[in-house]
Amino acid sequence: MYSRNSSMDGCDEAWKVFNVMEFLNLVSWNTMIAWFQMRGQGDKAMGFFSVMHRYSLGFNRATLVSVLSSLFGMDEIDFSWGLQGCFQLHCVSVKTGFILDVGIVTALLKAYSILGGELRDCYKLFLEMSGSQDLVLWTEIIVAFSERDPTKAIILFGQLRREGLSLDSYAFSIALKACAGLVTDRNALMVHCEVIKSGFMDTVVLGNALIHAYARCGSISQAKQVFEEMRYRDIISWNSMLKAYALHGKANEALRLFRKMDVKPDATTFVSLLSACSHAGRVEEGIKIFDAMFEKHGIVPQLDHYACIVDIVGRAGHFFQAEKIIKEMPMLPDYVVWSAFLGACRKHRESGLAQIVASRLKELDPENSLAYVLMSNVHCSANSFNEAGHLRKQMRRLGVKKQPGLSWTEVGGLVHEFASGGLQHPDRKAIYTNLEDFVKELKHSGYIPETTSSLHDIEDEQKEEQLYYHSEKLALIYALQDASKSPSSCSAIKIIKNIRICLDCHNFMKLSSKLIEREIIVRDSNRFHHFKNGACSCNDYW
């Protein structure tokens, strides 16, 4: 009773009762471990279990499930410590035979997944339960793959359907989460059909998951249709649609939808609204919304909101205002706030101010490459290649690694990955040849390589060659190769990129959409770009 009391007094009393008990049995110890687990104190739960094990007090299934759950439920997770604890509990489970229990395996799989363990280890655990896999275990293995390997997650979902188990709404929601990480909406449509056939269409959670999945796959019209057809909507429904509009740069639609909201907005609502204004350069509306958060709605701005407003005014070139906002924040600015400010400095080539902001970022997270990369971009744009070279040397000396530029596109039902240079792709020779011909044709349409996007002090001709082999250009050419084999294909070409699209690739995609008379949709790390008839949905503001 005391341990379930969330107050501090309840915590103290539970501990006192445990300490004064003359006789302690397994239930007493399990209750204390469950108490630590509920309060995110995994280290104490693990310590208690170690004492039980050391003194041969015995334990049961409930003990192991509670300790495992405590490892990934901590407020501040030390992943290396958590993984070590998970491995030790795994060993104990094998030695005692509990590894044959599907509940223990499910808890182990979930712990490994959340703590950043290898997916192959999670999958091995899952396979070892062959014949005893229930819906909960199936769902957990799909969860494990949904973010890090969404294609495999969808394959597993297909296998689950063939198992004949009765799927619940949670299983469908996890499958839709995996769909959100894929290039096209093909799989989202498939899961959507299964949701309808299973009779879950009026489930709010699944409606929300569908909005998210369609929006992330580039199908904003499908997301809107799902939202409009929902019989019941909660705050997450409204926020999901607002976020979808923000992601696709549709600020007008987001603002109109906000005015129609029939539920009380929350902090997430305003993050979506401010993001929409940021992506569309709507400075005045953004400031009004930020001011109205507390004045009209009683919501105190948090770090996410401050990052958005700094981005809004900073990218519009209002640096004094952005600095003022940061100085007057009631809390210390975090990495995201400073990153937004540094991005604005890079956009407007404010090298002096960028240097100060970059130093703050390095202090907060010295192993993150963002500050180094953005500063290198600033220096290269100003032809200060010595400074850019010094930064690259500093990164190597400190062991800071830059995230490589990768792009993905779906061709023939398969997802193809491209890295800058394209050296790993099996069809690279054909891609290079077709790219060369395509660039010549595009130059006749007015394409001029933006060599300021190149980060090296080399001749302009070499800079151009480097730009041609950016990953999204290679993905586009490969998709066009497939289209030439089936000329009837006229749907939009969809490409995902893991970092921000550069200025040259943005211009390249705009002109390409006009040349091939086909829409090109690129989702970079920040937003969607819909290229059509030589223009982009972002109006060149990103």
The number of helical segments is: 27
Strand content: 5-15%
Strand order of the largest sheet: 2-1-3-4-5-6
What is the radius of gyration computed over CA atoms, rounded to a whole number of angstroms?
A: 26 Å
Shape: globular
Catalogue the unreliable spans.
none
Helix content: 55-70%
- Nearest-integer average pLDDT: 89
How far apart the termini lie comes to 54 Å
Quaternary structure of the protein: single chain
For the secondary structure, the number of strands is: 6
Itemize the secondary structure elements and their pairings.
Elements: H1 8-20, H2 26-38, H3 42-54, H4 61-71, H5 79-96, H6 102-114, H7 119-128, H8 135-148, H9 150-162, H10 169-179, H11 186-197, H12 204-216, H13 220-229, H14 235-247, H15 251-260, H16 267-280, H17 283-297, H18 303-315, H19 319-327, H20 335-347, H21 351-364, H22 370-381, H23 385-398, E1 406-411, E2 414-419, H24 428-444, H25 460-468, H26 471-485, E3 493-497, H27 503-516, E4 520-523, E5 528-532, E6 535-536
Parallel strand pairs: 3-4
Antiparallel strand pairs: 1-2, 1-3, 4-5, 5-6
Descriptive account of the structure:
The protein is mostly helical and 542 residues long. The chain has helices spanning 8-20, 26-38, 42-54, 61-71, 79-96, 102-114, 119-128, 135-148, 150-162, 169-179, 186-197, 204-216, 220-229, 235-247, 251-260, 267-280, 283-297, 303-315, 319-327, 335-347, 351-364, 370-381, 385-398, 428-444, 460-468, 471-485, 503-516; strands spanning 406-411, 414-419, 493-497, 520-523, 528-532, 535-536. Helix 14 packs antiparallel against helix 15 (251-260), helix 14 (235-247) runs parallel beside helix 16 (267-280) and helix 16 (267-280) packs antiparallel against helix 17 (283-297). The N and C termini lie far apart (54 Å).
